[in-house]
Amino acid sequence: MRLCRASRAAVLVITLAAAGPAAAGVVHVDMKGIGFTPARISAKVGDTIEWANHDFVVHSATARDHSFDVNVTANQSGRTVVKKAGKIAYYCRYHPNMTAEIDVAAK
Amino acid sequence: MLKFVSLLGAGVLLCGLAGPAAAQGAKPTDPQIAHIAYTAGVLDIKAAQQALDKSKNAKVRAFAQDMVRDHTSVNDQALALCKKLGVTPEDNDTSKGLVKDADAYRAKLAGLSGAAFDKAYAEHEVAYHHTVNGALESTLIPSANNAELKSLLETGLKIFKGHEEHARTLAASLK
Q1: pTM attached to this predicted model
Q2: B169 and chain A: CB distance < 8 Å anywhere?
Q3: Given its phi and psi angles, is residue B70 left (phi above 0), alpha (psi -120 to 50 degrees) or beta?
Q4: Are strands A36-37 and A69-72 parallel, antiparallel or unpaired?
C-alpha cells in the first residue's frame, strides 16, 4: 500500500515534470534566399524561436527593440527565448532588406 | 567636394558597366557576365581592405569586414559554379573599365584620412552598390543564359541590395 502510494506520487512528479517544459514550444523560421520564412510568426512568452540559415552568407536576427541579437552562420541555426508579450520587429544586421516580425502572446 | 568625388566615381563606374555592351548592342555572354560579377566583388573587397587599413571608426570597420566576408562568399560560390559548368570567366572591356575606375578611386581615397575618409568610403559604397545592382537588374541577370548562373546573380542582387541599404544607414550616421 505504502509502495503503491509512493508509485502514484512518483508518477505525479514525473507527469508534472514532463508537463512543465512541454508547455514551451519551439517556433522555426528559415533564413533562405536572403529572407525570413515565414516572415510573420506567432509565439508565446517562454517559447524558443529557432532560425535555420540555409544561405551561404552569415545572417542575424536582430530585434528592433534590442531584446535579442542572434548571429547565424551559413548552414547553422541559432535561437532565442522570447520573454515578453507584444510584437517584435526584427531584421538582419548585414542585409537590412531582410525583415520579419514575431507576435508574442502572454502565457 | 567629397560628394562630387563619390558621384564622379559612380558616374564613371556606370559608364563602365553600361558602355561596351550598350555601344555594340550586344549582350554579354555567360563567361563575360561571370567575370564582371566576380570582378565587381573583388573590387569591393579591395575597397574594404583599404577601409580596414585606414579607418579607426568601429561602424566603418564592421561594415568593411561584412563586405570582405559576404563578397568572398559570393565569389567562392561563383567560382564553384563556373568549375561545375566548365565555364572560364572571360575578361572583357566592362571588367577592365571597372578595375581602372576602382583603382583610380582607391588612389583618391588614399589621400584622405579620419572622418573625411570614413564619409567618402561610406558614400562610395552606397554609389558603388547602387550602380552594380542597377547593372545586375538591367543587363547582367536578363542576359544570363544558364539558369544556375542567373539564380546565383539573383541571390547576389538580394545580398548587394542589403549592402546598399546598410551603406546608406552607415553614410547617414557619419554626416
Answers
A1: 0.84
A2: yes
A3: alpha
A4: unpaired
The interface pTM score, or ipTM, of the predicted complex is 0.84
Distance of alpha carbon A23 from alpha carbon B39, whole angstroms: 52
Of the partner residues A33, A56, A96, the one whose CB lies closest to the CB of residue B162: A96
Chain A, 21 to 60: residues with Cβ < 8 Å from chain B are 33-35, 55-58
Give the pLDDT confidence of A71-106 residue by residue, as tens digits.
999 999 999 999 999 999 999 999 999 999 999 999
- Cα radius of gyration rounded to whole Å, chain A: 18
Among A33, A74, A94, beta carbon nearest to B162? A94
Res. A8: pLDDT tops 80 = no
Round to whole Å and give the CA distance between A25 and A43.
8
Beta bridge partners of A81: A48
Does an H or E element contain A69, and which?
Answer: strand A69-72
Looking at the partner chain, which of B159, B166, B169 has a beta carbon nearest the beta carbon of A57?
B159
Q: Are A59 and A23 in contact (CB under 8 A)?
A: no
Tell me how many degrees the CA angle B120-B124-B126 measures, rounded to the nearest 5: 125
Record: contact B166-A98, CB cut-off 8 A: no
Provide φ and ψ at A29, rounded to 5°. Answer: -130, 135
